[in-house]
Design a protein that fits this description.
The complex is a heterodimer.
Chain A (H helix, E strand, L loop, with lengths): L4 H6 L4 H27 L14 H21 L7 H19 L1 H22 L5 H7 L1 H18 L12 E3 L2 E3 L1 H20 L6 H21 L3 H19 L2 H21 L1 H11 L10 H13 L22 H33 L4 H25 L17 H21 L10 H27 L1 H5 L5 H9 L5 E2 L5 E6 L6 E4 L5 H4 L2 E2 L3 E2 L1 H5 L1 H4 L7 H11 L7 E4 L3 H10 L5 E7 L5 E7 L7 H10 L21 H10 L12 E3 L2 E3 L11 H6 L3 H22 L24 H5 L9 H12 L3 E2 L5 E5 L5 E3 L7 E2 L3 H10 L7 E9 L5 E9 L8 E8 L3 H16 L2
Parallel strand pairs in A: 3-8
Antiparallel strand pairs in A: 1-2, 3-4, 4-5, 6-7, 8-14, 9-10, 9-19, 11-12, 13-16, 14-15, 17-18, 18-19
Chain B lengths: L1 H43 L5 E5 L5 E4 L3 E5 L6 E2 L10 E6 L2 E6 L6 E3 L2 E2 L4 E2 L5 E4 L2 E7 L13
Parallel strand pairs in B: 3-4
Antiparallel strand pairs in B: 1-2, 1-11, 3-5, 5-6, 6-9, 7-8, 7-10, 10-11
Classes of the chains: A alpha+beta, B alpha+beta.
Chain lengths: 878, 153
């Protein structure tokens, strides 16, 4: 033999015992990791009592049961296939530990079922000679008995979980699902029948007629019971057996056709099927309701990624019925794509061994039996795994050996017993085979399907993973927020605005300045993030601005991001609270900006809300007509109307295109007459008309500037770009053309601006014509406690000459204060009136220049002026 | 210090992956070994020699290969120069511990002990074969000792 010497020494005397030892090593490591996991999750040393210990009971029972079972099988059936028991045992153990990890009580029950299954297996070995012939002889009795028991569920059926179809029989905490047994009985019946007919086989019809009747009866029963997953498994098993017996490829095609037609008919006629197929095709349309399970399952797979979170480190419990229907996603979340490939390989290996056993079977009956069992294991595994990863519509069947469930476990071990018996019988004399091609085709198809399942798991886990994990309905984010420190938000003087309290596992967000809800935002497990908490989320959460290796290490060690970083904002808490107070009772917003740096000193929006009482007020906040959740300072887009007049005038002057005023003050736009915001001064010169925000004069200026002049001006003023602050804002872009510059210049022909944009525009008058970048986040404190700038800030751009800015500001100067001011009314879409107020400091020595923008929905310019002045003057220390 | 548990857990996870993939690798290693063994068993498997005597003429040939084709074509193991024989007429194959006779779609048919052949048939010692109008007598030599394919423990 050509086996290299070192390898040969590794090969043991008994393959199955060595494989079982390896499986036990895997499960032992798994259990140990599970024990330590609570300490790692909380990133602290825990007393031993707080670690997980209960699942070791499962490991102990597994070791005793499986080694005993293997030993007795080796004694009684020395020629059996040595692979299938260790592989099935590993699958059962993996499932068992996953169930322990999910729910203590289910773990306990599953351990008991494992012990019972193994004990029955060993007990049945005593009748090893008689089992297969007896099953064959009374095939009709078995099948009819199975049908009868299943039919009993019509009258005495219950559901242990309380909801869903009543498919179980039993009482007093012990339940059995007859349709699980029915699957094996159908396989036995079909194998026996087909083997008896084999010599007379001449066409499909005699083969099909009685089996189709029996299978049809079974299917009808299941359809009525709405146990569609099991029905699908039956069709699959039936198709494969008939195909193997008849050797005609048209059997496969016909069956595929029937399945597709049944699916279409079911989609049109049966509500349940309709819902299942809808949520399969379009899960993203309804992720909170019908598609909740599948969307949560995909997120669990995404959370697993390549290597998984580690045993006990994920949150597979977020997926409903994780222990039975969705055990695959639970396993993938904690062991990743690596685990998924291993799991699929194990199942595929088991199926291939079963097919090999069938090829080596002693007679046709045993051959069909082994193929039927291979079809049962593979179809059920593929159906439920495919349903978990959106490869197929979701059907509620169990994953053989792995899923929680006593009936499933018993039947899986019964199937294992039959396979073991067939493999022992067939070793020395295998029956001749007329046509081995169907078996090979089936093997190829099944292996291809398992490979496809692995690929799709990789697609969701690795390729689409990042998208899925950042979805707001992924509860894992909220979960990891409880375990990972979230960075604090600080004002310009490093006073706390929002912070984190509590210990690992109980971290909660503390809103120190809770009244600034619509500016600072919230970070909530249920409602997600908003405001600056949202815009700065990657930094606060520790996913950005971290050393790459630290981030990677944190993910691989804890499956969580690193502790979050603190962010310093440009806000002045006193001025911000003052602004909020000044706006009290209004619907509107205010922005106060340092005109030289563009730093936002105060931002307020009313009505607002308190982030601290979000949970209680959430429904009221959502239904409130005044939209308190909205930050009007950056999210509200308003028509600028005449407030931009001074800049139009300055542009026309600097380009020397200023005509004589026509004297026209009003302007008719869309059959609506727009009037001046106030009566212009008697002089009626350009300055007077612009200060009164007269639409007629603005239109004349627009025509004088022309299309390109106007576009260039708006562009230079930053009205076509979104300010670079970490807040959700409407997006702006320059239009291709402004065909009617006169109309556009009135500022009421569809153009919209935000308060933050207007604050930058206003800053030019107090800052010698320079337009600063808006800044809201200033610095980030790294893990070593050092502050780094939040972002590179572009130099201010010159929009006006300093002379023009100075003279414009002087023209707008207030009579009683060292400030300039400008106000105007605008009309909204629904004819609602907005009051704009812009003001800024006149340059005075070395004091920092400030500007303020106020907008009131439905208020007067006088009110806006009073609010704006109050805030601006207190910022200037007047 | 708290990180230590995390590193231990990471180590455990790495070992878990090793055990899991070790399990799979072991499965495949054993499979490969089984395949190897089967291949060498097949290579060692001996075919009982076939002694074929043409009844007209008494020409006799002995074959120890597992496959013998009869026909007019020069590539056949036994080339027959007879008009009633097709170019590739019939085949004798050894498998499943027996010599089998199958017709290769000949024009004039293959006959075993006078009966026309429809499906492959197992041959026994002293059987008589007829291809078209050419008849043969068969003798199958006994093997000194058949080697049974060894199975894994």
């Amino acid at each position: 033999m050509n086996i290299p010497r070192p390898l040969r020494r590794l090969l043991p005397a008994s393959v199955s015992a060595s494989l079982l030892r390896l499986a036990a090593a895997f499960l032992g490591l798994f259990a140990l990791a599970l024990t330590l996991s609570p300490a790692v999750r909380q990133r602290s040393l825990l007393p031993l009592a707080e670690l997980r210990w209960a699942h070791w009971l499962g490991v102990a029972v597994w070791v005793l049961a499986l080694f005993w079972l293997d030993r007795r099988t080796r004694e009684k059936l020395p020629n059996r296939d040595p692979f299938i028991i260790p592989v099935a045992g590993l699958l059962a153990g993996w499932g068992l530990l996953t169930i322990w990890r999910l729910t203590f009580e289910f773990g306990l029950r599953q351990t008991a079922w494992l012990a019972v299954s193994c004990a029955l297996f060993v007990a049945a070995l005593r009748y090893r000679e008689r089992i297969l012939p007896t099953l064959r002889r009374y095939k009709y009795v078995w099948l009819l008995a199975g049908l009868l028991i299943t039919a009993l569920t019509f009258f005495f059926g219950t559901n242990p979980s309380g909801i869903g179809p009543d498919l179980w029989l039993g009482c007093c905490g012990l339940y059995f699902q007859p349709s699980e047994l029915l699957k094996l009985l159908l396989i036995i019946y079909l194998s026996a029948y087909l083997a008896d007919r084999q010599p007379l086989m001449s066409g499909l019809l005699p083969l099909l007629a009685p089996t189709a009747v029996m299978t049809g009866a079974v299917l009808l029963l299941l359809m009525v019971q709405r146990d569609l997953g099991t029905a699908w498994v039956f069709i699959f098993i039936y198709t494969i057996l008939i195909y193997i017996a008849a050797g005609k490829r048209r059997v496969l095609l016909a069956s595929a056709l029937v399945l597709v037609l049944a699916m279409i008919a079911g989609y049109e006629l049966v509500g349940l099927v309709h819902a299942r197929i809808d949520s399969w095709l379009n899960p993203w349309l309804d992720p909170t309701n019908r598609s909740y399970q599948i969307v949560q399952a995909l997120m669990a797979i995404a959370a697993g990624g390549l290597f998984g979170r580690g045993p006990g480190m994920g949150s597979p419990g977020f997926v409903p019925v994780a222990h039975s229907d969705f055990i695959y996603t639970s396993i993938v979340e904690e062991t990743g794509l690596l685990g998924a490939i291993a799991l699929l390989s194990l199942i595929a290996f088991l199926v291939v061994r079963a097919l090999r056993i069938s090829l080596h079977a002693r007679d046709a009956y045993q051959r069909y039996l082994a193929i039927g069992l291979a079809a049962y294991i593979s179809s059920q595994s593929l159906l439920i795994i495919g349903g978990n990863i959106r490869m197929l519509p979701l059907t509620g069947v169990t994953l053989p050996f792995v899923s929680y469930g006593g009936s499933s476990m018993l039947i899986s071990f019964f199937a294992l017993l039959l396979l073991t018996l067939v493999s022992h019988d067939g070793v020395h004399r295998s029956a001749p085979m007329l046509n081995s091609k169907p078996t090979l085709i089936i093997a190829g198809l099944l292996l291809g399907a398992f490979a496809l399942a692995a690929l799709i798991t990789g697609w969701w886990g690795v390729v689409r993973g990042p998208d899925l994990l950042t979805r707001p309905d992924n509860a894992r984010r909220g979960q990891s927020d409880r375990y990972v420190w979230r960075g604090a938000l600080l004002d310009m003087e490093l006073q706390l605005l929002s912070s984190t309290t509590g210990g690992a596992g109980q971290y909660t967000r503390a809103y120190v300045q809770s009244s600034l809800g619509n500016i600072l935002g919230y970070s909530h497990a249920q409602f997600g993030q908003s405001g600056l908490e949202d815009g700065l989320d990657p930094i606060l959460r520790g996913e950005e601005r971290q050393p790459a290796w630290g981030l990677w290490l944190s993910h691989i060690l804890y499956g969580q991001p690193s502790p979050g970083l603190d962010v310093q904002l440009s806000l002045d808490t006193q001025l911000t609270l003052h602004s909020l107070q000044a706006l009290q009772g209004q619907r509107g917003a205010l922005v106060l900006m340092d005109a030289s740096t563009g730093e936002v000193r105060a931002m307020a929006s009313q009505p607002g809300f308190s982030a601290a009482t979000l949970s209680q007020e959430w429904p009221a906040l959502l239904s409130n007509q005044d939209s308190p959740l909205m930050n009007r300072a950056v999210q509200g887009a308003y028509a600028p109307a005449g407030i931009l007049g001074p800049w139009l005038l300055a542009a026309a002057r600097s380009q020397s295109v200023l005509p004589e005023p026509s004297g026209e003050t009003s302007y008719t736009l869309n059959e609506r007459t727009l009037e001046c915001s106030r009566q212009p001064d008697a002089a009626r010169d350009w300055d007077a008309l612009v200060q009164a925000a007269c639409p007629g004069a603005l239109a004349q200026l627009g025509l004088a500037l022309g299309e390109t002049g106007l576009l260039d001006l708006y562009n230079a003023l930053g009205l076509y770009s979104t300010p670079a602050v970490p807040l959700t804002q409407p997006s702006f872009s320059a239009p291709a053309s402004l065909p009617r510059p006169g109309e556009a210049a009135t500022g009421q022909a569809g153009m919209r601006v935000t308060l933050l944009q207007m604050a930058r525009v206003a800053a030019t008058l107090s800052n010698g014509g320079l337009l600063p970048e808006a800044q809201l986040a200033l610095a980030v404190k790294d893990a070593n406690g050092e502050w780094h700038p939040y972002a590179e800030v572009a130099e201010p751009k010159a929009v006006l000459s300093s002379v023009a800015a100075f003279s414009l500001a002087q023209k707008l100067a207030a009579s009683d204060q060292p400030i300039w001011e400008m106000e105007a009314y605008a009309r909204g879409d629904n004819d609602q009136r907005y009051a704009w107020y812009l003001a800024g400091s006149l340059s005075r020595g070395n004091q920092a220049p400030h500007v303020v923008v106020v907008l009131l929905e439905g208020g007067t310019t006088a009110q806006a002026r009073s609010i704006g002045r109050e805030v601006l003057l207190s910022a200037l220390g007047e | 210090m708290a990180d230590l548990t995390a590193y231990i857990l990471l180590g455990l996870r790495a070992l878990m992956a090793v055990a899991l993939y070790g399990f799979l690798a072991w499965c495949f290693l054993t499979l490969w070994r089984e395949l190897n063994q089967q291949a060498s068993n097949l290579a060692r498997q001996r075919v009982p020699a076939l002694l074929i005597t043409q009844e007209a003429g008494g020409e006799q040939l002995r074959f120890a290969t597992p496959e013998v084709t009869l026909g007019r074509h020069p590539s056949c193991e036994w080339m027959l120069n007879d008009d009633t024989v097709s170019s590739r007429h019939a085949r004798l194959v050894f498998h499943h511990d027996h010599w089998w006779l199958e017709d290769l779609g000949s024009r004039n048919g293959t006959f075993l002990n006078g009966d026309a052949l429809r499906a492959p048939v197992v041959l026994t010692n002293q059987d008589r074969i007829r291809c078209g109008q050419v008849s043969f007598a068969l003798q199958i030599e006994a093997l000194p000792q058949t080697t049974q394919a060894q199975e894994l423990p």
